[in-house]
Amino acid sequence: MGQDSTTTQTAPPAEVGLENTELEPAEATSENGKLQSPQNSETGNEESSEEHSDADEPSWMQKIDATFGKYVVANAANVIFYDFGTKDRFGVSIPFVVVWLLCGGIFLTIRMGFINLRAFRHAIDLTRGVYDTPNEPGEVTHFQALAAALSATVGLGNIAGVAIAIGTGGPGATVWIILVGFLGMTAKFTECTLGQLYRVTDEDGHVLGGPMRYLRYGLKDIGLPGLGRVLAVVFALLCIGASFGGGNAFQVGQSLEAIRGDVDILQSHPWIYGVVMAVAVGVVIIGGIRSIAAVAGKVVPFMCVAYVIAALYILGTNASEVPAAAAKIVSEAFSLKAGWGAFLGILVIGIKRAVFSNEAGVGSAAIAHSAAKTDEPVSEGIVALLEPFIDTVVVCTITALVVVVTGVYEAPEMQEVIANNEGARLTLEAFVVGGHDWFRYVLFAAVVMFAYSTCISWSYYGERSWVQLFGVRSSIIYKCLFLCFTVLGSIITRGNILDFSDLMILGMSFPNLLGVFLLSGVVKRQLDSYWKKYQNGEFPRMK
């Protein structure tokens, strides 16, 4: 975590790569068993001294962060990152959630006949509107649904998350990020198809779909109503928490760290950035999915293109170094020089960061895709499989190559940045070193806009989950809470934000994937029927 300044050169990946599974408590334990704050844990009973300067008193922001870490992050981590004693057996902690996600992606890819590969061209045609027909049910087009979902995934996970993975686990983590991206394409297809199959329209005319629907009513259809109700409620609660954390506070915190060094007022008053973001987010989320999709449809493509062009320029000017960087990424992914513990450590880091980036298996994207205009649920699932490819296979790989080619992850002056999980700052350094000094402003814009678009999309995910639990009239309460966490994102430290984000987002995969596994037969039958129609040319082309 942020308190550990160990560099990746002096500690093996198995030790430094799992800072999010071996959480440091917000408070340290003294010799007499009582809890002390980190500021006082090294000074024994100095806290009880009557002479205590104001400089030693933690600020109100530090108090909020310490409380958040102690009572929320640490306790939740004990459940979600439980590793069944693998650290003692293998020398590295392997959280069950990591195994769950990897096995889930493999199972669904085989179960759906590698639809992630054979439907790739068809997915592009669907997104282009080749098969769109007027008056189809839904609120947004295929492209707008894809843009809304991508706006929640293409963002700080690609810019900051990949840099964190390489900084802590080495370049080899990139291979596992890419692999999970390919497997995630099928997971996205399956959950988004289910989102379409079980969607409904609420009393205000808005589509309500996603795991909280197909878990409850899909499992009811196959004779498991009790399990369905439990999983739907658990998912909705975790989704609300994830929207506050990974989809909101983490985005604000990481984007703030990237720009605050160039904005003097944010050095002493970081909360100002949180307030500005809260106002900007609030203006959009009041309008619901149509407003969110309209903004995302403009912001995401523009910022993706700008970011990728800048990254490709860096790779082009360092073209002679790219083959060596790619070879290093592959060789270190499978290297056993540091033992099985180090290998497994890199694998775990790659899987975690990939899932945090593309959210495959988590179920969040199914909420956005359920609002797409179509009368063929499978078609939207096929559109959805493009997300992990764009987000993880393309954008994450480009980011990883830039970080490795420039070598900033090995620079001594960057080790504190890595230890503090400031991934956006590491990528910023790579852009400046590999390109031009003014490239920092391209990354500033990308970081802020990606963070902004992620916030508005995740607000929709959380709001739909909230409505499922508490009714449509309570939606305004959720939106107010969401904006409060936007401000808190500029206050809570990086380590606690990242940990909380992992906890909630990865936690969503438990109820979601269990339901998806049980309903995979339903999706397979729908897919076989759809694919037969497609191969027979029964879908008229509009373009």
TrEMBL record:
Keywords assigned by UniProt, alphabetized: Cell membrane, Membrane, Symport, Transmembrane, Transmembrane helix, Transport
Membrane topology reported for the UniProt record: Multi-pass membrane protein
Major site of localization recorded for this protein: membrane
Keyword Metal-binding set for record: no
Keyword Zinc applies: no
InterPro entries: Na/Ala_symport
Composition bias type Acidic residues, residue spans: 44-57
Chain intervals with Polar residues compositional bias: 1-11, 29-40
Disordered as annotated region, ranges: 1-58
Subcellular location, record wording: Cell membrane
Transmembrane segment boundaries: 90-110, 230-250, 270-288, 295-314, 334-351, 389-409, 438-461, 476-497, 503-523
Family to which the UniProt record says this protein belongs: Belongs to the alanine or glycine:cation symporter (AGCS) (TC 2.A.25) family.
Name of protein: Alanine/glycine:cation symporter family protein
